[in-house]
Amino acid sequence: MQVVLASGNTGKLAEFKSLLADTPFEVIALSAVVPDFEMPEETGTTFIENALIKAREVAAATGLAALADDSGLVVPSLDGAPGIYSARYAGKHGDDAANNQKLIEALTGKEQRQAYFYCAITLLRHDRDPTPIIATAAWHGEILHSPRGEQGFGYDPLFFIKDFNKTSAELPRELKNRLSHRGQATATLLQEIRAGL
Fold this sequence. Notes:
This protein has 197 residues and is an alpha/beta fold. 31% of the residues lie in helices and 23% in strands.
């Protein structure tokens, strides 16, 4: 079954292709179906709302099932920031270096550096699907004072996992995919699909 990923993020596309490699789902890039598609404005106040907005618009534009996730970094000592604004925390959407720098500056002088990545994934069979399949998960760690590692994207170089003594950007891809918020949410999504929900 072909499923369009409601994102232009090549890092997410690679992760979802890897996560769903041994399933009946073939994840295809949005650009391969609708090359000039403009993602809708994320007007929701939660990760789940934004994932649904994206999936519904993409399903309507492509006529195919749509898979969308909205994910980000939540830092409790910053009142949950960057949260749903993670990709555009520093202003420009997708500027990882600027977002990381703003996060480092925002945490200057703070002792509490705990954080978690949160992911909400939704699968719509079509744009009017009244029963979307939704799965969520969180991945806990803490924020370092400076980046480490070359893998991954986004806040991965700052997100430290104590059990492995590594940042997300230092983990092998297979391990990161298993541990991550997106990996956990995808596993839950697959369980729900198999249960026939």
